[in-house]
Hints:
The protein is an alpha/beta fold and 218 residues long. The chain is built from eleven helices and six strands.
Amino acid sequence: MIKVLLADDEVLVRAGVRAILGTAPDLRVVAEAGNGREALELARAHRPDVALLDIRMPVLDGLDAASELRRAAPQVAVVMLTTFSEDEYIARALEGGASGFLLKSGDPYELMAAVRAVHNGAAFLSPQIAHRVIRQVSGGRMSRRPAALQRIAVLTPREREVLALVGAGLSNAEIGERLYLVEGTVKAYVSAILGRLEVRNRVQAAVLAYEAGLVPPG
Length: 218
């Protein structure tokens, strides 16, 4: 059972998200918060696996709550849920350590898929968000190639293989199947890669893999 913390200042939105997740037998909302500060307190009390955080909330917004949550409880995967798709929110969310970014107008099944994906160690961006991220990266990909290659030079050949598959969007289980490794070993590789590259999450690692040319365009 994947335990979910839901934070949104709109009661109707929380009810809708809770109803959607409630249709899945493997997902359960264990706590609900109306602001970012309350979300942090509930995260400490309920130890969720995944936190769904609205971007705009009173007291402490979702972006700041995500940053604090990632420092206080790095084992909690964070997904940002918002009606806004401006690039500035995307950048701040990813820099803050979010593993996923969804628009509230997205498909309900997308919401469930995102929770499962980040819980399994993958990143998840809604199609609209993914398009924006790839567009930003591809716009200056070649100019950033030398710096990206220099950064990944610290990795072993196997770690570069794993990074390439992370960049392609594969989960730990899928990477394990591709490289004939057990999932725990893949998880250890990914943790080591994040540390060596000094990035906060898989999304940032994936962007770096794309910039370094480990992931083909398109």
